[in-house]
Amino acid sequence: MPTLAPDLAARVAARIAYRKRRAALPGPGTPAGGPTSRVCLGCRAELPLEQFKRNASKPHGYDYYRCKACHRRAMADTRRQDPDAHRQRSREAMRRHRAHERRG
Fold first, then answer.
1. Which tens digit of pLDDT belongs to each residue from 4-51?
2. Cβ atoms of 62 and 94 closer than 8 Å
């Protein structure tokens, strides 16, 4: 394993410590954290927050709109409606990913 520069090693250690502190905090859906369920706008069912996709930018840490099952169904419909556009988006995303890997 390569050795890290001292400043990089310190930053990595600080990041690991931050993640451990963050993991120890009470998570979304706990009584102090707010609501424990939400109504999906796709299937209109009231579901626990864990059935929604995680989104750290939202106040309770979960998406508002669709549950995981409805989201998967919507993405499959999108791919099915225009497979060529989906392939093109996938190619572009992979091209950007590979270009980023070469730089970093």
1. 677 888 888 888 888 777 666 655 545 455 678 889 999 999 999 889
2. no
Looking at the chain, the number of H-run helices and the number of E-run strands are 3, 4
Cβ distance 66 to 40 under 8 Å?
yes
Q: Buried b / exposed e across 1-24, counting CB within 10 Å, b at 16+? A: eeeeeeeeeeeeeeeeeeeeeeee
Concatenating the DSSP letter of every residue in 19-64 gives HHHHHHSPPTTSGGGS-SEEE-TTT--EEEGGGEEE-TTSTTSEEE
Q: What is each CA distance from 27 to 8, 13, 36, 47, 94, in whole angstroms?
A: 30, 23, 11, 17, 33
Write the pLDDT tens digit of every residue in 62-102: 888 899 999 999 999 999 999 999 999 999 999 999 998 88
